[in-house]
């Protein structure tokens, strides 16, 4: 039996580990990813994420090495301090020890561990998925065709696998009115007072009418000041989906407009210190 996974992101790599764990060893499993190299793919997989106890348990069942990597490269934080836009503390959310905040890129790196050479083929962009009388086929941009018994689609919002199953119209993506902006700021660029505050709280979620702003340490608390990063994500309601490409300064201006007037200079400091290219990502439904 031969299985092809289209897409080598977090979902595709997790699918590989699950199949490799529970299927017989004689089953062939291949992963095809459009990005040309692992480094390229990892550098473009987004901002920060949180992995909760259920996610860590599931991951440990299929890739214990990944969990060890996550623990070594993330911030194991026990709770969020929740405040409103005026600075009033509303409470603490969580209280569970076994969860991790870290860059999404680190999660992707963790899933590349223990995958033998040659399993993931980079620079292979799938443009069509089809069935024959007795097999399934993936057609690639370079004209090559791979045949298999089972295809797993993990190729994102523009999935050719979904289109092959349902057509273009049946599950066309619909913007649900919510936009998220995430990124990172160098910890060393913040004032000593804000550094102390973040070290004390580790993760802060501020809520307001139709918007929120959350920030937290994204690396282990033992990380040096010069290397530590603060991850943040802003979520807000908007009637229109953001443009596909926006200049970093335009996105910074959006963040300042939505969160700059809030009570605390922390928001303005973090937004001003954003160090990596940041995108405004629409949330889709359907």
What does this structure look like?
With about 290 residues, the chain is α/β, with parallel strands linked by helices. A hairpin with a 2-residue loop joins strand 13 and strand 14 (about 210-215). The longest helix has 13 residues, at about 10-20. About 30% of the residues are buried. The protein is globular. The model has no long low-confidence stretch (mean pLDDT about 90). Strands 5-4-13-14-15-12-16 form a seven-stranded mixed beta sheet, covered by helices on one side. Strands 7-2-1-11 form a four-stranded parallel beta sheet, sandwiched between helices. Strands 8-9-10 form a three-stranded antiparallel beta sheet. It has two domains: about 1-70 and about 105-165, 3-Layer(bba) Sandwich (FAD/NAD(P)-binding domain); about 75-100 and about 175-275, D-Amino Acid Oxidase, Chain A, domain 2. It has nine helices and 16 strands. Helix content is about 30%, strand content about 35%.
């Amino acid at each position: 039996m031969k299985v092809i996974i289209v897409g080598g992101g977090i979902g595709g790599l997790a699918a590989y580990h699950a199949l490799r764990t529970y299927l017989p060893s004689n089953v062939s499993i291949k992963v095809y990813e459009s990005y040309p190299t692992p480094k390229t793919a990892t550098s473009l997989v987004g901002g920060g994420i949180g992995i909760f106890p259920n996610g860590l348990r599931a991951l440990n069942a299929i890739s214990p090495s990944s969990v060890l990597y996550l623990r070594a490269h993330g911030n194991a934080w026990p709770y969020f301090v929740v405040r409103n836009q005026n600075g009033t503390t509303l409470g603490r959310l969580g209280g569970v020890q076994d969860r991790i905040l870290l860059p999404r890129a680190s999660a992707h790196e963790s899933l590349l561990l223990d995958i033998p050479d040659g399993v993931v083929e980079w620079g292979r962009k799938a443009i069509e998925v089809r069935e024959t009388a007795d097999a399934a086929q993936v057609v690639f941009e370079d004209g090559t065709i791979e045949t298999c018994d089972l295809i797993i689609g993990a190729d994102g919002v523009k999935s050719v696998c979904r289109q092959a199953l349902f057509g273009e119209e049946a599950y066309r993506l619909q913007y649900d009115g919510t936009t998220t902006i995430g990124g990172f700021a160098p910890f060393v660029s913040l004032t000593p007072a804000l550094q102390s505050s973040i070290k004390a709280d580790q993760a802060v979620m501020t809520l307001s009418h139709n918007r929120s702003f959350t920030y937290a340490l994204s690396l282990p608390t033992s990380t040096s000041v010069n290397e530590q990063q603060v991850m943040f994500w802003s979520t807000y309601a908007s009637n229109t989906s953001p443009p596909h490409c926006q200049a970093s300064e335009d996105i910074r201006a959006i963040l300042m407009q939505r969160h700059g007037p809030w009570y605390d200079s922390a928001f303005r400091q973090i937004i001003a210190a954003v160090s990596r290219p940041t995108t405004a990502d629409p949330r889709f439904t359907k």
